[in-house]
Amino acid sequence: MRRAMQKFKADMLLMRTDVDAVYVDYGTATARALRRVSPTEISGRDFPAGSMGPKVSAAIEFTEATGKLAAIGRLDDAVEIAKGERGTWFEPAPGYDRSSAPGCGSCQ
Fold first, then answer.
1. Which among 18, 23, 16 has a CA at the least distance from the CA of 42?
2. pLDDT-based confidence at residue 29 (cuts at 50, 70, 90)
3. Whose CA is closest to 90, among 9, 3, 52, 26?
4. pLDDT of 98 higher than 80
5. Is 78's pLDDT higher than 50?
6. Who is most buried in 22, 32, 60, 72, counting CB within 10 A?
7. What angle do CA 81, 83, 88 make, to 5 degrees?
8. Which of 66, 75, 74, 77 has its CA nearest to residue 11?
9. 37 by DSSP, 3-state: which?
10. What is the mean pLDDT of the chain?
11. How many Cβ atoms are within 10 Å of 39's Cβ, its own excluded?
């Protein structure tokens, strides 16, 4: 999967869903939307497999494999998500070196 993503020429991965962003503690009184995160920041958090889990995993994997942005947000907000105005953006960590990504080998 990583090899396929590394060859993928997309500038960004945009996943649309029925929720406006990825939330910490979703469905509780302490829920809060995550707006901009790095794979490192979000990797330790628990997101249910039947909910945001697969989307968050795909966003992390895409960002780590390509060094490019991934985003998750509401179906109707695609343009605003792509502009960074809505949704959750997954950004490479500062100083990210794609060649050190797991399974990368000699990525360019």
1. 23
2. very high
3. 52
4. no
5. yes
6. 22
7. 40
8. 66
9. strand
10. 84
11. 20
Nearest to 12 by CA among 56, 74, 53, 59: 59
Calculate ∠ Cα 75-54-51, nearest 5°.
Answer: 65
Q: Supply the pTM of this predicted model.
A: 0.81
Edge-first strand listing for the sheet containing 36-37:
12-17, 69-74, 88-90, 36-37
Residue corresponding to tokens 């050190």: 100
Distance CA 34, CA 22 (A): 6
pLDDT score of 108 more than 50 = no
- The identity of residue 1, as a single letter, is M
Q: Which of 6, 16, 9, 11 is nearest to 88 (CA)?
A: 16
CA separation, residue 41 to residues 3, 8, 45 (Å): 23, 24, 8
β-pair type (69-74, 36-37) = unpaired
Question: In this predicted model, what pLDDT tens digit does every residue of 1-26 receive, in sequence order?
Answer: 555 555 667 889 999 999 999 999 88
